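ok so heres the complex, two chains, lmk if somethin looks off
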Amino acid sequence: MKRREFLKKAGVGLGASAVAMPAIAQSMPEVKWRLQSAFPKSLDTIYGAAEVFARYISEATDGKFQIQVFGAGEIVGTFQLADAVGNGTVEMGHATMYYYVGKDPTFAIASAIPFGPNTRQMNAWLYEAGGQDLLNEFFAKHGFFGLVGGNTGTQMGGWFRKELKTVQDLQGLKMRIGGLAGQVLQKLGLVPQQIAGGDIYPALERGTIDAAEWVGPYDDEKLGFNKVAPFYYYPGFWEGGPALHFFINNAKWNELPKSYKALATVAASHAGIDMTAKYDAKNPAALRRLVGAGAQLRPFSQEILEASLKAANETYDELSAKNPDWKKVYESYRAFRSEEYLWWQVAEYTYDNFMIRARARG
Amino acid sequence: MKRREFLKKAGVGLGASAVAMPAIAQSMPEVKWRLQSAFPKSLDTIYGAAEVFARYISEATDGKFQIQVFGAGEIVGTFQLADAVGNGTVEMGHATMYYYVGKDPTFAIASAIPFGPNTRQMNAWLYEAGGQDLLNEFFAKHGFFGLVGGNTGTQMGGWFRKELKTVQDLQGLKMRIGGLAGQVLQKLGLVPQQIAGGDIYPALERGTIDAAEWVGPYDDEKLGFNKVAPFYYYPGFWEGGPALHFFINNAKWNELPKSYKALATVAASHAGIDMTAKYDAKNPAALRRLVGAGAQLRPFSQEILEASLKAANETYDELSAKNPDWKKVYESYRAFRSEEYLWWQVAEYTYDNFMIRARARG
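and the predicted structre for the whole thing:
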């Protein structure tokens, strides 16, 4: 029997069953997987990370471990992706896990909830403070295993047709907003809308919605929101440091030899740090172009931020009272965030503060 | 001839010559390298990154690509490490490249110079704005190739026996300080000292020096500086986002098959993001312990920061006038930093600002 045929019959790459293979086959078996991204191919930043991941894995194995990458909706809908990976329809996905708050709000903590840690703090919790281990206990109940795979940086608060000054201005405001933020802001009268990326622009243009948040300058510019909703608010306080995950069907992950697990882990980190670097490198010029094209930059008022923080903490207490998974993961996350900001205000923040003011003076 | 013997004779792992190998041998040859870190094994954070790098490479290749890691000074002195890698005495090193400013000040830009970009901005420049490509052109002249491999975050400004208020207080101050910062602060009367990690404590205790900077709370705590120099200043404005590099002898790097190059690249990124996460996760509790043990936290005065910035810019102009490598790399770095801070003040800084103030209020 030829080696490739043996491996196929043994189920590697097809995943029919986990098998014990001879050592030589284990080291570099032929594996072919499909990965669906939660994002459209037009987003070279966030979709691009899945391509980077797959390319390095293929290169490092001389093409023996191949992962074909699909854009949002090409196999299943983005909001069905967690189920599709859990039941093995596709081997793996790449997403901001807050897309799956409908299944369980605990998924939101894996990515971002309002007033969470910033990007580096989130990485620190995930990699070095047991965050990813806690999440993987939870993910296992849904049939998959997660690897940290990127972060967008603090997002923008989105595009508004009218200026926003007081909490009163949120009353009845129809806004496209993702994750747990809609549930939080509903407490302040906002009417959250779930709308896929491509449908946001026409909804804003027709006035079906009053506001929409997407990501940040570089991604937002592609969708052209500034033309129909000129007020561009910051910061996106519901996405202070949104993490992405590569997530893999449990059985498929367990079938991989140790060597491929190690490779996938480091390739996910590389795709992740490279994604954040892409956002950080591309956002400044995009922001300049947007402002040049008429976008009106506005900070959220202190009143809105304070009221939103209060609403967020109420929401988190309610969830802790009824969802043990949420409670377990959230308590670790909240305690870590508080310690982090204690330290952050010393070296990091003071340094950024001086640099920003020095730059402003030229 | 057995496969392993063939590979040995062909020089793989011994590096006698670059050879064309049959495809199957190219994919996973036996390679054994030595890596010396610029840091002592006691620093699980910054030394530990080299161990993480080596462990994942070994796992991903079933032990076929093995890198043995040595601590500072175990093969050559830390300040000789760049030469040792360049001439092939050891295959690779891991360091903050500003240790090699004595060879060429351009090395400092690869790690940190006073008032440089912060950690994420530095990653963005290196990975996505051509920074690492420019550095690799420069590194090639010294015989090696670099991979981005970590960042400590903004460091602390160090430990001082006396309080520091005005620029006048820097006059004659003998300080252990690394990289290009000593040269900059000399313009303000400071007397920089080059002292290895283990010798700093006795020098401070005896009063041979007046101040010393090392890294940040977690690493500094291990050396016990707070007992002999209680004033702990921030931020370390000469290390706003110090990058680390894995650097590899040119010939050894070129000998690697494409698969191992891909693996080393992603393993370096993983070791890097994990190092930053370790610092971010461990510094908060260490800072609490240091303050509990009597450390007096102090921000540098605005006067000292302003005068240091002026001295830094003068130094950079002088270097640009006489060193073409410096000029080429610095111009890319400076322009990028300015763009980054334009964007940073919008979403990231505003978010951190709110979170820090909300935390302080409880």
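quick notes: Confidence is low (pLDDT under 50) at residues 1-25 of chain A. thats all i got rn
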